[in-house]
């Protein structure tokens, strides 16, 4: 079932396009899933991609458009007229349609919506665009199957045939009262098993999970993952049914969220992948590298400040990379555990209790490592006071790095800022500086310099 | 719809258990989703958890058991007899049942399976346990709705009522031939819309995605996410239908995978969260910290080796944290981009072309940063040769760190090892050492020492 994009395939395709062999191209793609065609379009030249999009029929191309990488889709849409975009959009589900249109400039958005022949879809799209990004409203689609609680099973089967044709996947059928308020749900399975003369209200389940239209999309993802839901209805404050979110959208949210956290930990300011241009990659990477450089300069200035001790205790300076590295590692570990815990809702209890626990943990780890280091320095250099200075500093640095790594994400989280910022280069750089400063201060105390 | 575990709730629960007020406890949990009850059990003491499990009926507790954290479930299962476990397992779907039983010792597994009254379930579980971990076979369940291609729609509706009662969620109905080979699929929706006298073979879709029972579970997750599938049938080499995997299991696989990658990048050897004991957290964190310590000692030895130059060029040593930090940051960025690209299947093309691209990228970033550093050192120290030594080293170190960060994950991936190992402390520590070594070697050349 794996569709492989081989070099041979791409070569063949390029030739067919050069010869304008439309029939052969259409046949080539006939049995191919739109997600695979989207991948092909990512590989071919831009002109070839446009050629293929204009050739295939809207039912297929609309789905391909939703699967394309953002930057490629942007370029393709720039090359289509408002009418052409409207034709594609009319084949889509409302949530995908709103996403596509939402990527255009406000002026183009208006023209495309005006070019739509389906007024109901136009109204739906306008509504979906009105919701804030990253909320349930921005994620949901208007297509769903809904029945009124007063209907019978037989009447239901008759009427939903029409609704079901519009809905790509029917999960739960939502039951509403005459004010369109969500009062229950039932599955197609329940419907098939039931007797024809039963009332919907009798066979439906009144307990129905729903999310508010303004709920954060990551919260929705958590809820759907926790309760193993495949679709969830979206309601307003009065419980009026507005739309529904399906699990495939949540899978995308989960993947994007994981990618984003990972990138922050690695110090990348944008969503880049290795196929992007050198300029794009530089824009994403350089800012954090610059921060690291400034941190390194800070470390240099601190060490210069202690220049005087060098004659007697040169070895002190040779241990600075060790101290800085340990500070960085401990900080990254602590912050990663907290950030992951916050993402999985595992972090309960007070900030203080967590800091105290981290302090003991860091103390334990620090003492174990410091003992090892003490023995090493003593054997290698023979100077007990030097060994003591380095080891005691290691413990202090590890404890403080651990506390910073635990505290900063929690603090950011309480302020409503994404705690994942506190992982990666930000923590390592600041811990490097703190670490070196603390190191020399302690060394100064112990060695009496 | 959010069920909040407040301190008041827990206090109330503890009191009810102390008073052995079974009726009140049962009522308390009556309307609560099993995923929420599992969270409550994570919060209460172990004895209280056992009490609640033994009190609630098997239909509910079996689902709770599947949602518990691994370590708590392990302790609870140790306190149940083989018969009691068998009673829980009989209420579960075969994939959850196999997972639970699979966590027991081999001896206990046998006793629990023998204690099962349902022979078909026992046979299913034995089959599922025979598949390797992290494959489609280990992930799948045996419950599904299947029809034969020769049936009519009317006959179908009659027969699947029985099957449908067993299946928690019916997505696609799978169509098989008389040799049980998968030949097509149809949805409940198709069934409802069709006329009663049509043959299944006429209304079913013959194109049906399936995975081989030995396929890697992360591959399955990729396929289901890419094609927006909610369930996928699992077949053997002869295309005989063996079971199916549902999207909720894939959502779990995705979350676990993201957690695991993140932890590797932060240098944690096990799956820990901030609520674990100090001992568990130490076991997870200390190994990588020890690696970092060894790396720091390596850096120390290198710097000691160049001790002689200190008199004249002390400032060289003051820049080592900067060089080491930049090497680490660049390495982490490069490896993160590659690892993420591999996970999302975005990495195509040859390793060489990727390395060349990384070299140019690192050169560009390195030169920009080095220019800045050169000016800084020149102004601060007034020595052009020192500024040159540090800046040129920075460029060299950044290029080499970038190449290592790009090459190592790709190399590991080609050897079938998880490339995510090459992120985090492993890369930062080795880059620190390489960085410092290269720095001093270049400084030696430029300064003629």
Automatic annotation (TrEMBL), chains A, B:
Keywords: CBS domain, Cell membrane, Magnesium, Membrane, Metal-binding, Transmembrane, Transmembrane helix, Transport. It comes from the Bacteria. It is found in: Cell membrane; Membrane. The keyword Transmembrane helix applies. The keyword Transmembrane helix applies. GO terms for cellular component: plasma membrane. InterPro entries: CBS_dom, CBS_dom_sf, Mg_transptr_MgtE_intracell_dom, MgtE_N_sf, MgtE_transporter, SLC41_membr_dom, SLC41_membr_dom_sf. Residues 140-202, 203-260 form the CBS domain. It is a multi-pass membrane protein. SMART domains: CBS, MgtE_N. Its main location: membrane. Gene3D superfamilies: CBS-domain, MgtE N-terminal domain-like, SLC41 divalent cation transporters, integral membrane domain. GO terms for molecular function: magnesium ion transmembrane transporter activity; metal ion binding. The chain crosses the membrane at residues 286-303, 315-339, 359-379, 386-408, 420-442. Pfam families: CBS, MgtE, MgtE_N. Homodimer. Belongs to the SLC41A transporter family. Acts as a magnesium transporter. This is Magnesium transporter MgtE.
